[in-house]
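Subgroup meeting minutes
Present: P.N., E.W., G.H.
Scribe: E.W.

1. P.N. recapped why we're keeping a running log of single-chain structure predictions: easier to compare across weeks, and new members can see raw inputs and outputs side by side.
2. G.H. added today's entry (106 aa).
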Amino acid sequence: MLTDEYRYKILKELQQDPDISQRELAKRLDISLGKVNFCLKALIEKGLIKAENFKNSTNKMGYLYLLTPKGIEEKVSLTQRFLQRKLKEHEALEKEIEQLRQEVKT
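Output recorded in log:
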C-alpha cells in the first residue's frame, strides 16, 4: 500500500514542513487521513522518519516529523527513480503526440 510514489511525496512534504498535521498532509496529497496514518507508521517502522511530540500554539498535542539520515538517503533514491519514471512517461507522451500530429496531417 505504501508505494514508492507515496513514500516520495510524503518524505518530500515532511522535509519541507516537519510540523505538518496528518490532516493537512492528507489534503495536500489528496488521500485519506487513514492512509496517511498508515504510511507514517510504516515510515517510522522502517526508520525513515521519527515523530516527536510538541505543543503548538493552541495547546494541542502535535508531532514534528523529522527525516532520519536513512530517510534522507531514501528520499534521494526515490527522487532519482521518480524522475526516471517521469522522464520515460514524458518521452512516451511526446511520441504519442507526434503520432497524433501525423494522423491529423493525413
